[in-house]
Q: What sequence folds into this?
């Protein structure tokens, strides 16, 4: 469950206005709302927890913490005001203490027992500030300093105020007050030179220097992609560099970028349970002394050394191991460029062993077989020794170890930190105790606390009553009526079930009819488990302030089923506008330079990636589509007109087209024009629509309308058709084509707008004699006028 904490600068300098006409504080509020909308596209966002901290002094600066709902978060965000100082150091310390509040209760830090990557609570702090000078009650500061003292117990066990699964990202607003005449640079968003940038890099995050609204949207898109489940580790090279591989140049001397990397390893949750599962810890950087009263403080990010000596990957059946993917970095790029998927580099933690500074290997780095990522394999401590022993135990000795094997295993256990063994023993003990736990006795029988008289018969009953109400001094523990040790309700009849229904005598007389209807509805719908204590109208009567609270609604929804085909892209939820196309945002992080390929995020199944298919979507309010894919509608630049002369203008266009066709046609006219118009008047609109329906339903026109010759006439089969048959076939084909053209032209006429090119193109395809075409055109003119 990721925790997203927004740290908003509420200093007075956030009241400055940009060239957009809004203040920096308004831009910050809009950025938070945009971030939430972008995040809500991911189905995994239903488990997110949002917090809000301002630059005010604690505890007033904590606007929304662990217990506040999403509605409270949004209300406090809208009510923020810029009236204070730029005390970012104190506010950052407050944010870290707020995140670390539950870690002591959950015990995920596991001090002195190794670092378990699968025990994590990923958190991202998004700080939005203007990058002004750091001010406090003592004056102006040039560097960012976090207070060292904190009231949080257990904070002395970690040197830094943050943890390895907490990262800080800052959006520094640099939007000018006047529009710049220079064009906006295209490319990645640069780092900001403000004092918060070093703090972001230490935690594994980064800062963004924002100069425009477009750049701000790009940063928000990038931040949404940073929400990953993982922990940050420092990887450092030890020993000499590896020899150059074939096809590479000479070995480079001196420090390289891949020698030291401060990157994250992804901890993927189990697809069945949704919770990360692991087996082995990353060892501590000290050998635990059981006689020492305190533990030495640890660094927030473990220092993992890797040796560039090629080793053989080791995996034994029935012995578990943990596998974590590394975030793209210069180290992963260097390992992938070596193209050695069958060799690995061992990893160590200094001072983890009892003797020796480097310690024993606890895993290795290895490129995947497809050479698309680098994985960290976490194995048992000193795995090159224990894995062959376990392999012999399974395959050779068949789980019946001889004395020699036992001696070898005892010698191995002496080199292993003791928390590898005690953690397993404690876990087995807890699991065994849970399995043998006796079931509680159920019922509602009252067991008296003692044989004393009732409290109402006591002489000091008045004093007891005042003590309970808080009006008098508290009584001793033995006389405190709030303490009921072993208080339990039980029933003599085990089949008796407690009833959660209301007493009918408690219902007011004016509500009896309404309650009776509810009881009747619950009785008739007895199959429903939950009884309805409200009317349907009351269930849907939600205050306006809570109507958009979609996050709380998501948390109460059951988890969706997994996709049948995991290769298909995830479906977006239908809250809001499900037909909105996801615009591709530019990648703005330096780490993304190591990612190869194009990421098609937000693309729906069957959607084309070509630019030709990115037109405007169809409008849902009318039956016919307003636009087609690949062609955007642009209104014509004509003077204002009344809506009644659209059809008249289309009729004039068709008349002109008809006149030109009549003059250019070389066939003799079989009848005067007046007779043709009278014949066209006989073609009523109902017949046209009926024919359209037949064509749309069956895909072809009825042959009975345009039948030629007698019904019972049968032609003798011959090898070549006669001229009469050829004429009949041509007439039938032309009639079918004209019927289809009539449907298409009618659809184009009914569309709004002034695009007549397709109508004239379809009119040119009319088949038949001049008389047939004239009748066809007159019917089309009538339809346009209608």
A:
């Amino acid at each position: 469950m990721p925790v997203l904490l927004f740290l908003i600068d509420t200093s007075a300098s956030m009241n400055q206005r940009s060239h957009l006409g809004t203040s920096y504080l308004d831009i910050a509020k809009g950025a938070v709302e945009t971030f939430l909308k972008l995040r809500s596209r991911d189905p995994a966002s239903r488990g997110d927890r949002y917090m809000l901290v301002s630059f005010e002094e604690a505890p007033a600066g904590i606007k929304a913490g662990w217990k506040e709902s999403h509605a409270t978060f949004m209300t406090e965000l809208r009510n923020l005001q810029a009236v204070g100082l730029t005390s970012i150091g104190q506010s950052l310390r407050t944010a870290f203490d707020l995140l670390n509040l539950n870690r002591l209760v959950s015990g995920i830090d596991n001090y002195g027992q190794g670092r378990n990557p699968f025990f994590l609570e990923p958190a991202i702090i998004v700080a939005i500030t203007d990058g002004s000078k750091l001010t406090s009650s003592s004056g102006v500061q040039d560097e960012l300093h976090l207070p060292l003292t904190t009231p949080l117990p257990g904070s002395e066990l970690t040197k830094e105020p943050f943890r390895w699964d907490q990262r800080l990202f800052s959006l520094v607003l640099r939007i000018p007050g006047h529009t710049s005449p220079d064009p906006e640079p295209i490319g990645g968003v640069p780092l900001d030179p403000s004092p918060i940038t070093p703090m972001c890099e230490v935690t594994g995050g980064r800062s963004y220097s924002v100069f425009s609204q477009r750049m701000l949207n790009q940063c928000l898109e990038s931040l949404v992609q940073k929400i990953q489940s993982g922990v940050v580790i420092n990887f450092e090279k030890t020993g000499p560099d590896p020899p150059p591989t074939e096809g590479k140049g000479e070995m480079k001397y001196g420090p390289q970028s891949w020698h030291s990397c401060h990157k994250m390893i992804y901890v993927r949750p189990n697809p069945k349970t949704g919770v990360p599962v692991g087996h082995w810890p990353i060892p501590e950087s000290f050998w635990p002394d059981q006689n020492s009263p305190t533990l030495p403080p640890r660094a927030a990010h473990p220092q993992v050394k890797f040796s560039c000596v090629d080793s053989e990957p080791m995996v034994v059946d029935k012995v578990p191991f943990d596998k974590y993917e590394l975030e793209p970095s210069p180290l992963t790029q260097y390992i992938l460029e070596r193209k050695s998927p069958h060799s690995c580099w061992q990893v160590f933690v200094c001072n983890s062993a009892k003797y020796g500074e480097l310690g024993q290997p606890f895993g290795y780095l290895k490129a995947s077989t497809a050479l698309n990522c680098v994985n960290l394999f976490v194995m048992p401590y000193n795995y090159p020794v224990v894995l062959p022993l376990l392999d012999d135990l399974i395959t050779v000795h068949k789980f019946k170890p001889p004395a020699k094997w036992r001696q070898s295993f005892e010698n191995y256990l002496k080199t292993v930190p003791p928390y590898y063994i005690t953690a397993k023993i404690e876990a087995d003990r807890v699991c065994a105790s849970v399995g043998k736990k006796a079931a509680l006795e159920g019922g509602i029988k009252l067991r008296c606390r003692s044989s004393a008289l009732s409290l109402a018969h006591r002489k000091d009953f008045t004093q007891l009553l005042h003590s309970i109400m808080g009006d008098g001094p508290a009584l001793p523990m033995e006389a405190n009526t709030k303490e009921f040790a072993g208080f339990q309700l039980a029933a003599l009849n085990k089949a008796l079930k407690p009833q959660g229904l209301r007493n009918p005598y408690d219902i007011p007389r004016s509500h009896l009819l309404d309650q009776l209807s509810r009881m009747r509805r619950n009785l008739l719908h007895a199959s429903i488990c939950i009884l309805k204590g409200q009317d349907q109208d009351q269930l849907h009567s939600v205050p306006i302030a809570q109507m958009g609270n979609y996050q709380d609604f998501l948390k109460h929804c059951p988890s969706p089923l997994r996709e049948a085909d995991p290769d298909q892209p995830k479906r977006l939820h239908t809250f809001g506008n499900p037909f909105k196309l996801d615009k591709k945002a530019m990648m703005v992080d330096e780490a993304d330079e190591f990612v190869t390929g194009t990421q098609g995020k937000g693309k729906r199944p069957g959607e084309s990636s070509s630019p030709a298919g990115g037109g405007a979507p169809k409008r849902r309010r009318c039956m016919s589509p307003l636009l087609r894919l690949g062609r955007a509608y642009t209104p014509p630049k004509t003077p204002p007109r009344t809506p009644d002369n659209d059809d008249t203008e289309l009729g004039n266009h068709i008349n002109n087209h008809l006149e030109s066709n009549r003059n250019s046609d070389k066939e003799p006219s079989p009848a005067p024009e007046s007779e043709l118009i009278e014949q066209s008047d006989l073609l009523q609109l109902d017949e046209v629509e009926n024919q359209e329906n037949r064509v749309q339903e069956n895909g072809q026109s009825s042959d009975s309308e345009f039948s030629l010759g007698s019904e019972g006439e049968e032609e003798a089969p011959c090898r070549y058709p006669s001229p009469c048959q050829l004429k009949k076939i041509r007439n039938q084909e032309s009639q079918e084509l004209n019927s289809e053209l009539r449907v298409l032209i009618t659809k184009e006429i009914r569309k709004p707008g002034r695009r007549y090119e397709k109508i004239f193109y379809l009119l040119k395809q009319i088949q038949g004699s001049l008389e047939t075409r004239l009748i066809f055109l007159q019917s089309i003119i009538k339809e346009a006028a209608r």
Observations:
- The mean pLDDT is 74.
- The first strand starts at residue 3 and ends at 8.
- The two ends are 61 Å apart (CA to CA).
